[in-house]
Amino acid sequence: MKKTIVWLRRDLRIHDNPALWEASEQGIVIPVFIWSKEDEQMSLSSYASKWWLHHSLLSLQKKLYRMGLSLTIRQGDSLDELTTIIEETRANAVFFNESYDSSILTRDEMIRERLNSDGVEVETFNSHLLFPPGILLNKKNEPYKVFTSFWKNTMHESVIQPKPTPVEFSTLNQFLPTLAIEDLKLLPSVNWDEKLVEHWVPGEDGAIKRWQQFSEEGMSKYLEGRDIPSFDDVSLLSPHLACGDISVRSIWFSSKMLLESDSVSYMHSSVEAFMRQLIWREFAYHQWIHFPEIVHTPLREKFEDFPWRDTDEMFTFWKKGLTGYPLVDAGMRQLWETGAIHNRVRMVVASFLVKHLLISWQEGSDWFKETLVDFDVANNAMGWQWVAGSGIDSAPYFRIFNPILQSQKFDGEGVYLRKWLPELAKLPTKYIHTPWEAPIDVLQKAEIELGKTYPFPIIDHSFARKRALEAFATVKTNI
After folding, report:
1. CATH of residue 85
2. DSSP-assigned states of every residue in 56-116
3. What pLDDT is recorded for position 129?
4. pLDDT at 477 > cutoff 90
């Protein structure tokens, strides 16, 4: 029988896994995961991402074992390890789902050419996105630079149906040398990761359960809930999508079924808003593939000379949630505790760093890379460039989130603030968004001593806004 190595990467699942499905249809399946130096250099090298990867691999390993397959784990150069396994098994083919990092694409093409020259069949598939990057272009046959136009175009494009889930596999009747997942040393050396277990269930089963719960209970309230950080009406699927625990195509078609089966207008609006977020993710990848410099370099050249005021002290206050602005601090505390941050609050904390503190977006991007379990190179880069105003489709330079008004509007009763800032829990709602305005007796009753138990604001909002506008004025001719 044909023997096919299925090289698993950002696709740690059984359902809608084109490489796995096609291999299962053609003969014996040999699932392989290789931790390479390229992976170390990519998004998977961050603490939070590696923690997630470790547990997703464990989940996949158990699932494959129940289906009669052993997951072979190797570490080293990808081509060397694949060549070794081909020699060990006399495999005829290597199938894998594509990755869209430019350096990885170059490496994968080199591997394809080398294996083909050795007489080994190589097939690749799109699995991580709804539309392979590069196929969606505007009327000028150029990459889209405006999300709204991109979104409208995708509504006229067909998405390939998800592949079925294999019910059985033909297995290799041979033992292969393999590392234990623990040998990859993906878990952080500090105990920070222990608290992540309380908030997440990495892996395919956890992803499917989360999707079912959201689609049945949270989807109908998504349109409103996505902006209210104290609500649980968001999908929480982003880390599963980032690691490939769940298929974006399966989510897309399930969402379309909800859209077509429910005539209630508010449900329709919520489903469409959710699907729009899936397309926002696509837009990020399509930008990344066309403009790989987006990860570290502003796409608007004028921003290379932006007058940033990077300071370690202010950056530390921001990272630790000690800015004196409750919504910003609550978001950064949530990030450190859970490895995630509510999307509305994510925009506010990013804006605060870039526009209130004038600290470069690259600094914030690097911190998110280390701490977000849902870190995704394309999404993260586009999000930060959007906030900074340096991307191709970005927030206007004069859009400076007021952290006080954002807090009052989206967490009026202070539920989110009290959860993540317990030192402010006893403060009356009237002052929860601006503790520095509370009278002394109110602060004493709430057991708060500003400057000790909770900081004064590290910068005045009005001053910061004026300073930011002056800084952006130096580059706005190109915005």
Report:
1. 3.40.50.620
2. HHHHHHHHHHHTT---EEEES-HHHHHHHHHHHHT--EEEEE----HHHHHHHHHHHHHHH
3. 95
4. no
